[in-house]
Amino acid sequence: MLAFLAATLLAPLPNSVLPSSGAAPLDARADMTMRPSRRAPGITVRIPDPAPAIVLPPISGPKDPKRPLVVIDAGHGGHDPGAINAEHGWREKDITLAIARAIRTELLKGGRFRVALTRDEDEYLILQERYGVARRLGADLFISVHADAAIANPQARGASIYTLSEVASDREAARLATRENRADILNGVDLSAQSSSVSNILIDLTQRDTMNRSAQFAKILEREAAPYMAFLSPAHRFASLVVLKSPDTPSVLLETGYISNDEDGTTIRSAAGQQRIARGVTQAITVYFARMAGR
Q1: What are 92-147's pLDDT values in tens digits?
Q2: CA–CA separation, 208 vs 204, rounded Å?
Q3: What distance in Å separates the CA atoms of residue 293 and residue 289, rounded to the nearest whole number?
């Protein structure tokens, strides 16, 4: 349905109703690469190359570009330590990086997925850069890994999964549609030459579809990872989190446990605990993409 609407909305308009933006023809634009649309088969679109200042991380796994690409984001880093357990000196940024690496290792074992980490060292990234990496790489799924903290309640423990709220989605769609430079690519559709109204419709349709896919994965993650890690109840929650605001990449934020809780903290910082989390996440990813392939 989304591909049909996109193709319909992007159908050539008569010259009399084309916007007089003064922009150069697409064929004359620099820094563009050609790539088939992912959700509108048969349509080839021009996609801006990543800005030279942004260094994209390497992709590990099979060289086949048809294999699903999963981007794992280790929360915090650099001068931002994230949550801290002051008693033991545990830092969220260290735990999330270790878990992200463990998930990558587990995902690569079967040879079915391609994997990239937003950071593979102790480095600071702003939130937009995190989901921006996933978008520029053309990721099929984005998972941001975190560890929660409840200083007032050291007994609080358990994992949780966040997806973007409806209100936040609408605001982000509006912001994206009114940006001065509309060279954004949504599911392989170039919006740079479209009117604001057309861009608005496509962005809204795309982001609603993305939110649905994110919620589907969140449910699968809770069910498939339950044998490997304890979840809060309810485990699936909604929030206006910037890191989840990619309009065209299904995204979840996984709080792996409470660093403020000694039992949770000990588990998520141990190699055995990190491997269990990795197995649960990998199982969920496997089921998710099997379902997507069957749609």
Answers
A1: 999 999 999 999 999 999 899 999 999 999 999 988 889 999 999 999 999 999 99
A2: 6
A3: 6
Q: b/e string for 268-290 if b means 16 or more Cβ within 10 A?
A: bbeeebbbbbbbbbbbbbbebbe
Give pTM, 2 decimals.
0.74
Distance separating alpha carbons of residues 293 and 295, to the nearest angstrom:
6
Return the residue matching tokens 């050291």: 154
C-alpha torsion sign, points 286, 267, 142, 136: negative
| Nearby residues of 278 by Cβ (< 8 Å), 6 or more positions away | 99, 102, 103, 105, 106, 107
CB 60 within 8 A of CB 108: yes
Q: Which residues of 54-81 are buried (b: 16+ CB within 10 A; e: fewer)?
A: eeeeebebeeeeebbbbbbbbbbbeeee
Beta strands in 21-61 (DSSP E): 32-36, 44-48
Quick one: tokens of 114? 């391609």
| Both tokens assigned to 279 | 């197995």
pLDDT at 36: 43
- For 60, phi and psi rounded to 5 degrees? -100, 155
Say how far apart CA 279 and CA 26 lie, in whole Å: 45
